[in-house]
Structure formats: C-alpha cells, structure tokens
C-alpha cells in the first residue's frame, strides 16, 4: 500500500527537480541543512526576542529599532558574500577546483575588510545615527538602543567571516559544514543570553556581550575549518590576507549591485521603522512581534531562496540554461506551497505563541490581524518577489534585479507605507499592507524578466 505513494513522490521529484546538471537527491542534500539552519536561526531569534521581552517593552522596542539599522549595515557585506557564493557555485559547476579555492579566499578577505569598515562606522557614529533616525523614541528606548548598536557594530567582523565562509561552502554544496558553523554561533548566542539576560538580569547589555562572544567564536571555528579540516579547498592564511583583484572584480560584479540594492532596500525599511516609531512604543512592539511570526512562516521559503543560488549557479557554470529555468519554476511552486503549510501549522497556535512575547493586551488583536493578512498574501506574492531574483542573480543578472528592487522599495513600500500608515491612519497594518503591495509589483517585473532571455546572457566566469 505504501510503495505506490512512494513511487508517485519520487516520480514528481524526478520530473520537477532533476535534470542534466543536478538531480533531486543532490538538491535535497543541499536544501535540508539550509532548512535546518534557517529553522534554528529564526527559532533561536524568536527565543532571544522572547527573552529580551522579559526585560520590558522598552528593551524589546530598542532591540527591534536597532535591528533595522543592523540589517542595513550587515546587508552590505552579506551581499558581497552572496556574490562569492555565486562565483564559487559557477566555478564548481564548470569543474575548475583551483578557481573555486581562489574565489573562496577572495570572498572571505573582501567581506571581512568591508565588515571592519562598517563596524567602525557604527561605533563611531552611533550617536548621530540614533538621533537622526529615532530621535522621537522614548529616553529609555534610546538608552537601550545605544548600548545594543555599539555592541552589534563591534561584532560585525565576526559574523562577516562566518557569512563569507558559509556562503562559499553553500556554493560548492557543502551545506552540512555551513549548518554546523551557523549552529555553533546561534546556539552559543542563545545560551549566553539565557545567562546574561535571564539569570544575571543584564538586559540589552547582556545581549550585546552574548552576540560578540558567539560571533567571534564562530568566526574562529570557520577559519579553523577552512585551514585545517577542509581537504578540497586547501586555503592558506596568505590566500585570505592577499587580495586577488581579478577575483574581487568577479565577486563585486554580483556583490556590488546586490549590496547597493540591500542598502536602499533596508534604508527604506528604516524609514518605515521611523514611521512606526512615531506611532509609539506599542506600535514598535506590535511590529517586532509580527515580524517574528513572519520570520517563522518564511523559514522553508528562505531556505529555498538560498538553495536556488547554488543550484542555478552550478547550472550556469555548466552552461545549462534549460535546467536553470526548470528549477526556478519548480522552486517558485515549492516555496508557495511551503507558505500554505506553515500557515496551517502556525495560525491555530497563535495565542500560546504570542504569549511568549508578553505583549500588552491592547495590541494582541492588532498583531493577529497583521499575521493573518500577511500569511494569506505571501502565498502568491513572496516567491515571485524573492525566489525569482535569487535565481536571476545566480545567473549573473545582478544589475537588473538590484535596480528593480531599489525602485520598487522606495516607490511603493516607503511612499505607500507612509500614505497608508500615517496619512490614512492605518498604523502598523498600513505599513505591512504597503510591503505586500511592493512584493506584488516587483514580483510581476521579475516574472516578466524570467520569461525572457536577457537574464541568462551574462558571462561571469
């Protein structure tokens, strides 16, 4: 009785997730560790948010407020790390192992240098940044925000090394190793938060200490893995310390437009965060908790978006456009179905889940409405807005995807978010509805690009 069902599932996987470049077994082997990684990252962040919420509304508001700046600053070098993933994947697909090693070393060195600069910027200019962006916040929120911003900025170099190494490992298909490094960083972070926040009652300061210890310890483990444990890459310390300009150019061909996109994209998010700050501390908390739920819903889809970079990158390295196109379509459908599944799993347990954040009773209904509407709308919209550009970027079509993302963010999410949230007085819900509208617009543009031919006509390696 079981065998026919197994055969049907294998037949579907063979049909939609196998080709000349890669079969479904290899794809599953890539996807599962990334999925576990995303689940742990989001789940542990959820636990961290719940832990810091025990320190009061001012603490959770400050963390959410500063995280919008952190995401903006982190996005610069994480985007360059993604460029490294694409270059490594394409060299892996072409079978050039010597260049795979050079691309990995180039990614680690360039991303680390950028992170050092960004981190120094955050430490030196934390005061003007906070006053410019969140001057309307309450004094206790600002005080907590200052501590968290400085602590986060100091930790940037550590997480940059981890992101660069993990990105390169995903590019060659070593997702288990990248999962191991990510788990080291995030599990240590949660355990230290338990000690510093819950046991020692150090609040935001404790979270800042935890994040630095966890990220730098993980960075040490990442470099140790590259130098001592990985037998394929054979990277030496001198390879990372010496910049390869030609390799840096290839990485930045993908990474620079993506970095610019992420800066504009997350800059727009900061503007919407400013709108929310002006609505008060309860609005900040509602937005933070709503975002935590959205993050859980997006776990499988985000894992698919990361997996498609390796899949399409290796397909393009082989020059196999047919497989690349087929797999992008399959990943779009799989991603949309994942949102249906996650909605069915999470919405029935909203009450016990939201209680983890200790929200004021006055905002619980608002949070549920945000979560419900976002759950429904992301089923058709998220995949075309994020899976498709990940695939296009892996093929080398970085400029187009970045320009579209920047323009749609500012013309729709920011402007429409202000109109709906502030002018029409819809509050936080209006900001979220504007985000969903922006997904629809940019997703439609990416789909049109994908159905054409220009996206795969770039030569990267």
Comma- or semicolon-separated keywords:
single chain; 461 residues; mainly alpha; 18 helices; 85% helix; 0% strand; globular
Task: Provide a descriptive summary of the structure in words.
The mean pLDDT is 85. 55% of the residues are buried. The chain has helices at 2-17, 24-53, 57-94, 97-124, 126-134, 139-154, 156-171, 175-199, 203-229, 237-241, 245-278, 281-297, 299-317, 321-346, 350-354, 364-394, 398-423, 427-451. The protein is mainly alpha-helical and 461 residues long. α2 packs antiparallel against α13 and α17 runs antiparallel to α18.
- Give the low-pLDDT segments: none
In sequence order, what are the helices and strands, one letter per element?
Answer: HHHHHHHHHHHHHHHHHH
The number of helices is 18
How many DSSP E strands? 0
The overall average pLDDT, rounded, is: 85
Task: Profile the largest sheet.
Answer: none
Strand-pairing-aware structural class = mainly alpha
Helix and strand arrangement:
Blueprint lengths: L1 H16 L6 H30 L3 H38 L2 H28 L1 H9 L4 H16 L1 H16 L3 H25 L3 H27 L7 H5 L3 H34 L2 H17 L1 H19 L3 H26 L3 H5 L9 H31 L3 H26 L3 H25 L10
Helix pairs in contact: 2-8, 2-12, 2-13, 3-4, 3-6, 3-7, 3-11, 3-12, 3-13, 4-6, 4-7, 5-6, 6-9, 7-8, 7-9, 8-9, 11-17, 12-16, 13-14, 13-16, 14-16, 16-18, 17-18
């Amino acid at each position: 009785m079981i065998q026919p069902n197994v055969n049907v599932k294998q037949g579907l996987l063979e049909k939609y997730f196998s080709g000349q470049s890669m079969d479904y077994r290899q794809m599953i082997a890539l996807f599962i560790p990334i999925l576990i990684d995303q689940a742990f990252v989001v789940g542990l962040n959820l636990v961290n948010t719940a832990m810091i919420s025990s320190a009061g509304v001012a603490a959770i508001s400050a963390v959410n407020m500063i995280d919008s700046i952190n995401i903006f600053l982190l996005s610069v070098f994480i985007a360059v790390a993604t460029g490294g993933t694409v270059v490594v994947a394409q060299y892996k697909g072409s079978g050039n192992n010597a260049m795979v090693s050079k691309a990995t070393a180039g990614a680690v060195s360039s991303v680390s240098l950028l992170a050092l600069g960004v981190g120094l910027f955050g430490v030196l200019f934390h005061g003007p940044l906070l006053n410019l962006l969140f001057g309307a916040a309450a004094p206790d929120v600002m005080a907590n925000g200052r501590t968290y911003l400085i602590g986060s900025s100091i930790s940037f170099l550590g997480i940059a090394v981890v992101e660069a190494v993990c990105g390169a490992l995903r590019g060659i298909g070593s997702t288990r190793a990248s999962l191991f490094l990510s788990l080291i960083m995030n599990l240590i972070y949660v355990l230290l938060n338990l000690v510093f926040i819950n046991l020692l009652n150090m609040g935001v300061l404790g979270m800042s200490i935890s994040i630095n210890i966890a990220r730098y310890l993980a960075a040490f483990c990442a470099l140790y893995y590259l130098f001592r444990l990985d037998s394929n890459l054979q990277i030496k310390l001198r390879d990372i310390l010496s910049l390869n300009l030609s390799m840096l150019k290839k990485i930045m061909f993908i990474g620079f437009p993506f970095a610019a996109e992420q800066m504009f994209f997350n800059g727009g998010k900061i503007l919407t965060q400013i709108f929310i700050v002006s609505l008060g501390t309860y609005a900040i908390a509602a937005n933070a908790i709503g975002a935590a739920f959205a993050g859980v819903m997006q776990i499988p889809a985000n894992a698919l978006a990361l997996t498609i970079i390796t899949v399409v990158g290796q397909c393009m390295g082989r020059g196999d456009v047919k497989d690349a196109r087929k797999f992008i379509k399959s990943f779009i459908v799989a991603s949309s179905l994942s949102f249906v599944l996650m909605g069915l799993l999470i919405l029935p347990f909203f009450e016990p889940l939201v209680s983890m954040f200790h929200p004021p009773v006055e905002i619980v209904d608002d949070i549920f409405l945000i979560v419900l509407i976002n759950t429904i709308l992301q089923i058709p919209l998220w995949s075309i807005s994020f899976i498709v550009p990940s695939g296009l970027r892996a093929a080398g079509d970085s400029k187009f995807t970045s320009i579209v993302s920047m323009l749609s963010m500012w013309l729709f999410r920011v402007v429409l978010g202000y109109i709906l949230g502030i002018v029409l007085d819809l509050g936080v819900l209006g900001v979220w509805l504007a985000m969903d509208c922006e997904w629809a617009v940019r997703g439609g543009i990416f789909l049109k690009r994908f159905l054409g031919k220009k996206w795969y006509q770039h030569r990267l390696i």
